[in-house]
């Protein structure tokens, strides 16, 4: 092997090794700074608390168009969810129980499914949901964004008081105890 060929191979091997090392460090070992959106998201969620709920209309499982104003005067939990979302599925039994316990006191859970109709229909029947389920799909994502969900989190829950003022917002799984703690002062 001639010296120029040997040097070319050596340079190529060194370059590839350097690229591999950089890639390994960058993708596995590089220290990460806090995501820049974390503080701005928390700040944004605090800003929407105390604001009037945005209006929206979506179809229910019967194909009827339902408007959020239909539940004016109730304490309303709007929950954005999907059948393929494990934390969304874990929340549903608690929501059924909360609706059963507090429904007569003017509490309504409105579930906005970011999912296809057949999967939602199957889920509704299997889990015995006792509250309105609206079919959001793509329109539901836009409604979720209007309610402050800038990152597209699922589940995402928004609690409204009887005047339609946003009082509590929770991206991620909402546990029954937390929901009831937020709900009781609004009854």
Automatic annotation (TrEMBL):
InterPro entries: Redoxin, Thioredoxin-like_sf, Thioredoxin_domain, Thioredoxin_ResA/DsbE_sf. CDD domains: TlpA_like_family (cd02966). SUPFAM superfamilies: Thioredoxin-like (SSF52833). Pfam families: Redoxin. This is Thioredoxin. One of its GO terms (molecular function) is oxidoreductase activity. Residues 47-187 form the Thioredoxin domain.
């Amino acid at each position: 092997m001639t010296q120029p060929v040997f040097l070319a191979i050596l340079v190529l091997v060194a370059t590839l090794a350097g690229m591999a090392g950089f890639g390994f460090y960058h993708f596995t070992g590089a220290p990460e700074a806090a995501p820049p959106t974390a503080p701005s998201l928390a700040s944004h969620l605090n800003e929407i608390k105390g604001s009037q709920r945005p209006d929206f209309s979506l179809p229910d499982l019967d194909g009827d168009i339902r408007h959020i104003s239909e539940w004016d005067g109730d304490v309303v939990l709007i929950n954005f969810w999907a059948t393929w979302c494990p934390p969304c599925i874990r929340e549903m039994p608690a929501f059924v129980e909360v609706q059963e316990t507090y429904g007569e006191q003017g509490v309504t859970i409105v579930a906005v499914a970011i999912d296809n109709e057949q999967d939602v229909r199957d889920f509704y029947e299997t889990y015995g949901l006792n509250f309105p389920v609206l079919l959001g799909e793509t329109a539901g994502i836009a409604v979720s964004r209007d309610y402050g969900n800038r990152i597209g989190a699922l589940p995402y829950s928004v609690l409204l008081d009887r005047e339609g003022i946003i009082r509590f917002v929770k991206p991620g799984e909402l546990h029954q105890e937390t929901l009831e703690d937020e709900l009781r002062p609004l009854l």
